[in-house]
C-alpha cells in the first residue's frame, strides 16, 4: 500500500475505511462513488435517466457484504432490483443460459481474482465451487510495473520517485497504459517528460518496454492463479476434462500470457467473449 495516494484507517466501529483528502469513507461510500460514475456514464450513453440496477457480486460474498453493496447502490441513487453472482452474470453475457454442462469462470479483474465452477441445467445456474485470491488483480500488475519504473529511474538518475506523489500518479497511469498496449503489441514506449527535477534541471523518463519483459515482471502474479483453480476443481469434485467451457472475465484476461496459462490449467482454449 506504500505507493497509493490514500490511507486505510480504522473506523470508530472497527471497520477498514479509506482516508483521502482529509476525509474518511466507508467501503459502501467508495462503492457508491463508482456506481454514481457508472450511472452517469449509462445516462450519457442512453440519453435518459437510469434509476434501477442489477448489481453483480463475487459468489463468495456473505449477506453482510451483499447488503453493503445494496447500500452503495442506494447511496448512488439507484433502486437495486437484484444482487446476482458474478459468474452467473458472466455465463448470461456469454449467452449460455440455454446450454447445459459445467462451466469454469476465470475472472481476473482490477483488484481480485475469482474462479468459479458453474453447473447449468434447464436454465438454472448453480455455483458448484468458488475460490480465488482477494489480493490479486490488475492493480498488482500495475504495481509490479510501477516498481520497475521507479527502480530504473533511480538506477539511471539517482532519484527516488516513490516519495513524489505527483510523479507516482503519472507513473501509475503510464504503467496501466503500457500494460494495456502490450496485450496487442510486442513493445511500447513509456515517455514522461518533466517527471521531476533536481539542481541540474528537469528530468525525463523514457523507457522501451517489451512484452517479454512485462511478462517476466508479472509472471509470479499469473502463477498465483493456478492453485485457486486446482482447489476450485477439487471442491467441485470434477476434473478439467469434465469442464465443458472456460469463460474469461475481467480486463486482465486480455493479457496473452494469462490466456496461455488458462489454456495450460484447463487443457482447452478459453472463450473470449
From TrEMBL:
Coiled-coil residue spans: 161-188
PROSITE patterns for this protein: HSP70_2, HSP70_3
Key words, A-Z: ATP-binding, Coiled coil, Nucleotide-binding, Stress response
GO MF term set: ATP binding; ATP-dependent protein folding chaperone
Keyword Nucleotide-binding: yes
SUPFAM superfamilies to which the protein is assigned, alphabetical: Actin-like ATPase domain
Entry keyword annotation includes Ligase: no
Protein family membership: Belongs to the heat shock protein 70 family.
Protein name in UniProt: Heat shock protein, mitochondrial
Species of provenance: Sesamum latifolium
Amino acid at each position: 500500500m506504500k505507493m497509493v495516494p490514500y490511507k486505510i484507517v480504522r473506523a470508530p466501529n472497527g471497520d477498514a475505511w479509506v482516508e483521502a483528502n482529509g476525509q474518511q469513507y466507508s467501503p459502501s461510500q467508495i462503492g457508491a462513488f463508482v456506481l454514481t460514475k457508472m450511472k452517469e456514464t449509462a445516462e450519457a450513453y442512453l440519453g435518459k435517466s437510469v434509476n434501477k440496477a442489477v448489481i453483480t457480486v463475487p459468489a463468495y460474498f456473505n449477506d453482510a457484504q451483499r447488503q453493503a453493496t445494496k447500500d452503495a447502490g442506494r447511496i448512488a441513487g439507484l433502486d437495486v432490483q437484484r444482487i446476482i453472482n458474478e459468474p452467473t452474470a458472466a455465463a448470461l453475457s456469454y449467452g449460455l443460459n440455454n446450454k447445459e454442462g459445467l462451466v469454469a469462470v476465470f475472472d481476473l479483474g482490477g483488484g481480485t481474482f475469482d474462479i468459479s465452477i458453474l453447473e447449468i441445467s434447464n436454465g438454472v445456474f448453480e455455483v458448484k465451487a468458488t475460490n480465488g485470491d482477494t489480493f490479486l488483480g490488475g492493480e498488482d500488475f500495475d504495481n509490479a510495473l510501477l516498481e520497475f519504473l521507479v527502480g530504473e529511474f533511480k538506477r539511471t538518475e539517482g532519484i527516488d520517485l516513490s516519495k513524489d506523489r505527483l510523479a507516482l500518479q503519472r507513473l501509475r497511469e503510464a504503467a496501466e497504459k503500457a500494460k494495456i498496449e502490450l496485450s496487442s503489441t510486442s513493445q511500447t514506449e513509456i515517455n514522461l517528460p518533466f517527471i521531476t527535477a533536481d539542481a541540474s534541471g528537469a528530468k525525463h523518463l523514457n523507457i522501451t518496454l517489451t512484452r517479454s519483459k512485462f511478462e517476466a515482471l508479472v509472471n509470479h502474479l499469473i502463477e498465483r492463479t493456478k492453485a485457486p483453480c486446482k482447489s476450485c476443481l477439487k471442491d467441485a469434485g470434477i476434473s478439467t476434462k469434465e469442464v465443458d467451457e472456460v469463460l474469461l472475465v475481467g480486463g486482465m484476461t486480455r493479457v496473452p500470457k494469462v490466456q496461455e496459462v488458462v489454456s495450460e490449467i484447463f487443457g482447452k482454449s478459453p472463450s473470449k467473449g
